[in-house]
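Final report, closing paragraph on structural work. Over the funding period we assembled a curated collection of sequence-structure pairs, and we close with a single example.
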Amino acid sequence: MDLIGEDDGAAFELYEAKLRELYNQMIRVAYARLSNKSDAQDAVQEAWLRMLQSRDSLREASKLDAWAKTITANVALNMNRHTARMLTVADNEELLSSAGDTPSAYEAELLLEISELLGELDPRSRTMLLYKFYYGFKDQEIAEALQLPVGTVKARIHRTKALLKRMMLEQTNV
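Its predicted structure, as stored:
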């Protein structure tokens, strides 16, 4: 007895292909943030769980891809934060003291400065910059995620970059 008719079978195959493509996109997002295939797969699995648990929060089915990528990026970010917390303060102090003024100490200081500057931005501008430059989202994806026109997203990112540049210049001139 065939439970799925020919029409149902074709629809199921189409649905399965769409899910497979979404999974591949999510893997790419996670892998770009974690640089480890195993961790990327774990992040995508966790993202699928979160998507299923909060599926009612997706208002428009057409935005499923952007929604899934955002959740995946957030899970990957949380995994990175968790890994960073695993390093003890003593390990960090030892690393910095042994490095002296080497590029790694400089990079750590630079990252701290960037983090402080981002913290001074309004939440919407900070979110757009993180989506664009940290998560690697395209302007169209950011626009869909934030429900804004693409032109607005581009303009705000441009203005926020200019503001950050001014803030950095002011900081070095002080």
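The chain has two domains: 13-86, 121-174. The mean pLDDT is 79. We thank the funder for supporting this effort.
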